[in-house]
Amino acid sequence: MKLYDVFISYSSKDQKVAEGICGYLEGNHCRCFVAYRDIPKGKNWPSAIPSAIKGSKVMVAVFSEDFNLSDETDREIILAAKYKIPILTYRITDTTFSETKEYYLQGLNWLDAFPEPEKCFGVLYDSVIKLVEGRTSFSETCENNDKDESNVSLVNGEKHKLHTIQIGGSYGFISSDEDIAIPCKWSDAYSFANGFALVKDENNLWGFINGKGELIIPCKWKDANAFSDGMASVRDANGKWGYINNEGELVIPCKWEWTILFTEGLAWVEDENGKKGYIDKTGELVIPCKWDGARAFSEGLARVQERNGKWGFIDRNGSQIIKCKWKDAGSFSEGLVSVQDKNDMWGFVDKNGNTVIPSKWKYASSFSEGIGMVKDKNGKYGFINLQGTTIIPCKWKSAWAFLEGLATVEDDNNKRGYINKQGELVIPCQWDKASGFNNGTAWVQVGESWRLIDKSGTFVRI
User: Fold this and answer.
1) Closest C-alpha to 181, from 194, 199, 163
2) Residue 168 shares a structural domain with residue 92
3) Do 197 and 152 sit in the same domain of this protein?
């Protein structure tokens, strides 16, 4: 199963940069593997690294002189190539590729992040999310309702949610009580979303199955993303993207360089010039391709980027509502959006671009359940309310958004637990990894495996 979004490959001498990348990506909910933190003490590194690379969606190579000369990083990028894991090279020194690095990395795109690597974390995130966006992660459980139960299996006469599992290099699905529901016969798979799961066959082509394991949409696509709003983006043999409906019919021709999920009835697309615009569900280009960057609509506004690298927001008519003056920005949630100013500090503005919460945080995420996660000048995480008042002190090494009344936090020992909205630690920090709650349960990592817990911290099935 894909346990991580990003495997960070780095030289031990560049650990501080790797830590910064990890903090930024995980602050934006991209789960990372970094060896210094994620390999337990006493664990054999040569056995841990390959499984972590294979269990990741993309590798970020922190390229420096030390990285260039390292035999260990040679092995890691060779494994990434073997497992067909995309590699993003993040150059933190102006060093020429040599030997193995030249063979594996020279022909790929890279980001020049020197002399101040931390100032390019946002650009790196945008590149990473382009590869992983639209794919549901292992930790995300499926929504179930009366209208659509195709992601639900009957085990011993009872309904159970389905999740990906990997056995012997093949993928299948287990139910929430850990019984095998769909046999492991796929070369890759992603969790259910909106009644369908993405699966890849032995020819490296993608299709979709239902909750019974039936192949509803044949494996014929070079790449694909999960269903959202009744449509899924797919890439054909020519490398172009379009959209299919729930029946697998191509309803928007494959002619775009890149596409993403529909949200609020619109999806951003990239043309042959690398410019982004937005189409509706008929495939009509309703907002011209003129932006250097674009993100999904949220609460009626979408984040767009001009050539100068600054971000602003447009409405559904393509009118610019908030000028492109921010170094980075999130998505609107509960009427506010987090923005990064010229001094690299974060605050919040409303839908008219008015500052509601001043830029004084090293990082700030979108609001969830009336609470926003922030990072202070000391690098610690806490939470604020919609008025900007700190309601949970910044004392955690890392933190994630509130979901169903609880938020995941990480202590100084790199262990994760859960707090309530009063900041009380209601489930002790004892897990190496932990997801947010969904329908009363959350995934936690126990050794090398994942288990479900309820809100008391008890395993759903022991």
Assistant:
1) 163
2) no
3) yes
From 132, 150, 166, give the residue that closes a domain: 132
Instruction: Give the mean model confidence (pLDDT) for residues 421-446.
Output: 89
- If DSSP codes are grouped into helix, strand and coil, which group holds residue 409? strand
Residue 134 has a pLDDT of 41
Asked if 370 and 334 touch (Cβ cutoff 8 Å), the reply is yes
Please report the pLDDT score of residue 7 as a whole number: 95
**Residue 408 belongs to some domain of the structure:** yes
Beta strands in 92-236 (DSSP E): 110-112, 152-155, 158-167, 170-175, 180-186, 188-189, 197-200, 206-209, 215-221, 223-224, 231-235
Distance CA 21, CA 34 (A): 10
Residues facing 348 on adjacent strands = 338, 357
Given a contact cutoff of 8 angstroms between Cβ atoms, the answer to whether 211 and 204 are in contact is no
pTM over 0.70? The answer is no
Give pLDDT tens digits for 265-297.
Answer: 999 999 999 899 999 999 999 999 999 988 889
Concatenating the DSSP letter of every residue in 305-321 gives E-TTS-EEEE-TTS-EE
> What was the pLDDT predicted at 180?
59
The CA-to-CA distance between both ends of the chain, in Å, stands at 21
Query: 71-82 vs 45-54: helix axis angle to the nearest 10?
Result: 40
Do both 127 and 16 map to the same domain?
yes
